[in-house]
Design goal:
By secondary structure, the chain is of the alpha+beta class. It is built from 13 helices and 26 strands. The longest helix is centred in the N-terminal third of the chain and has 18 residues, at 3-20. Bound molecules: alpha-D-galactopyranose.
């Protein structure tokens, strides 16, 4: 056989096999979310003699591949990225199977692989968008809204990604009729996972779970309530839906046209494009856009309390800013967050509040005693009161906690002064908040697992004489003798008092 012919035969048989066995390519796993959108994970791989290189994009995160082993018949890739000053990592294992990439992760090294199937995607799809330089800093004018902490409901704690327009209507019905509206609750806030894709002009559309946002806003307004929505300054939200990146002005106008009254703006995917030092400028963009939208829209910043947000939140037009990571429906999580807020008290003022995250009251992970502590603490903290439970089916005890008018009056005190810790003796803490007219809200909190006798003295509170005392949970005046007050406080419980001059 002539040499050339032999070579061609060899090449024909071998080259396609080599090409097919190469991991190089842009691979995508598309998981149907059943709302008209897909959760897409991209593996942009380059197989080279030195290893597998490239990037991984999953929901909001863009990782650079920093380590790899193996090849098409079996490989591992580890991606890493900086998130503020913290390094995040992901690790995948996979193999090439014909035209597919079978790829997965393990929750723990010994856990089974959760395998997904990736297909080839066009080059560039799923790539990190080009960075837009953040603007110069300036002061965004105060929008004049929420002079007292916002009160309402938010979908995330109970429903996470499952929330639908139907649920939202149901919450509005419940809030309007169960006493919550009368108690001051007004915002019905849709959190992440309402977003669809953008149209050809770049206008954001809602997904199939929210077929008509304008109609939904009209419905909620018809109940005398207000509607809130959620987005991110990044290209993707935390759940990997479309963010407002590079569409800030357009999105603010869309929200205004729909009749939206509140925006929670969650850092999420912005972390891949911007450093924490740039947050203020990035948040300022949406602050400006909301003001220019022509509709009063409450601006709630969610960036987990990074970059000392309480120092610049008001300057970007922020009405509230998260001070912590996400709350969970456990005593450990709620109490850790709540009792950690002491130092931030000086930053709260009418129209601008610290936000230690939404309420878990009624979600089932804590006792009513613990939920009373949650409500009391959030009221002393002048925190937004955003119920996070299913308002359509709530035991009377839970409704009573959420609507206690005397506790809400503490939260809504018009001077907007956040309370702080007066003393701490092991697990026993006394907190107080100054109220209009010289009154004081005082909480005797027992963080221990044992019922305890707790005392507070007038001296320690800076109170002269013998004040008038009211128990805000029992709704009755109580009398104290002498220099202070003593109460038996249940484990994880609170005695919440209002003190006023006699
Ligand atoms: C972040 C926020 C949560 C919630 C989710 C939605 O984790 O802190 O409050 O909005 O994103 O994806």
């Amino acid at each position: 056989m002539p040499v050339l012919y032999r070579y061609l035969l060899f090449a024909a048989s071998v080259i396609p096999v080599c090409a097919a066995a190469d991991l190089t390519g842009n691979w995508v796993v598309a998981q149907d979310r059943h709302d008209g959108t897909f959760r897409r994970t991209y593996f942009n791989l380059k197989q080279e003699p030195t290893g597998i290189h490239g990037s991984i994009r999953t929901t909001q995160f863009f990782y650079k591949i920093s380590e790899s082993t193996g090849g098409p018949e079996g490989f591992t890739i580890t991606g890493s990225m900086m998130d503020g000053d913290r390094e995040r990592k992901v690790r995948y294992e996979g193999k090439l199977a014909g035209d597919e990439l079978h790829i997965g992760t393990r929750n723990r090294p010994e856990a089974p692989l959760t395998e997904m199937v990736a297909h080839r995607a066009p080059d560039g799809e799923g790539a990190m968008p080009a960075r837009v330089e953040p603007p110069q800093l300036h002061k965004v004018a105060d929008n004049g809204l929420v002079r007292t902490p916002p009160m309402g409901w938010n979908s995330w704690n109970k429903f996470a990604g499952r929330v639908t327009a139907e649920d939202v209507r149901g919450m509005a019905d419940a809030m309007a009729s169960n006493g919550m509206k009368a108690a001051g609750y007004v915002y019905i806030n849709i959190d992440d996972t309402w977003e669809g894709s953008r149209d050809a002009q770049g206008n954001i559309r809602s997904n199939q779970k929210f077929p008509d946002m304008k109609a939904l806003a009209d419905y909620v307004h018809g109940k005398g309530l207000k509607l809130g929505i959620y987005s991110s300054p990044g290209p993707y939200t935390c759940a990997g839906y479309e963010g407002s990146y590079n569409h800030e002005v357009q999105d603010a106008k869309t929200y205004a046209a729909w009749g939206i009254d509140y925006l929670k703006y969650d850092w999420c995917g912005a972390r891949t494009l911007y450093k924490d030092e740039e947050m203020q400028a990035v948040y300022q963009k949406m602050g400006d856009a909301l003001l220019a939208s022509g509709r009063p829209i409450v601006y709630s910043l969610c960036q987990y309390g990074r970059a000392d947000v309480w120092k610049w939140g008001p300057d970007v037009g922020g009405n509230a800013w998260r001070t912590t990571g996400d709350i969970r429906d456990t005593w450990a999580s709620m109490s850790k967050i709540g009792f950690d807020q002491d130092k931030l008290a000086p930053y709260a003022k009418p129209g601008h509040f610290n936000d230690p995250d939404m309420l878990e009251i009624g979600n089932g992970g804590m006792s009513e005693t613990e939920y009373r502590t949650h409500m009391s603490l959030w009221s002393i903290l002048a925190a937004p009161l955003l119920a996070g439970n299913d308002l359509r089916q709530m035991p009377p005890g839970i409704l009573e906690i959420l609507t206690n008018p005397e506790v809400i009056a503490v939260n809504q005190d018009r001077e907007g002064k956040q309370g702080s810790r007066v003393s701490k003796d092991g697990d026993h803490e006394i907190w107080s908040r100054q109220l209009t007219g010289g009154a004081l809200a005082v909480g005797l909190f027992n963080r221990s697992d044992q019922e305890a006798k707790m005392q507070v003295s007038w001296k320690q509170l800076g109170v002269k004489g013998n004040p008038h005392l009211r128990d805000l949970w029992l709704h009755k005046d109580v009398s104290a003798s002498g220099e202070g007050y003593e109460a038996t406080v249940p484990a994880h419980g609170v005695m919440l008092l209002r003190l006023a001059a006699k």
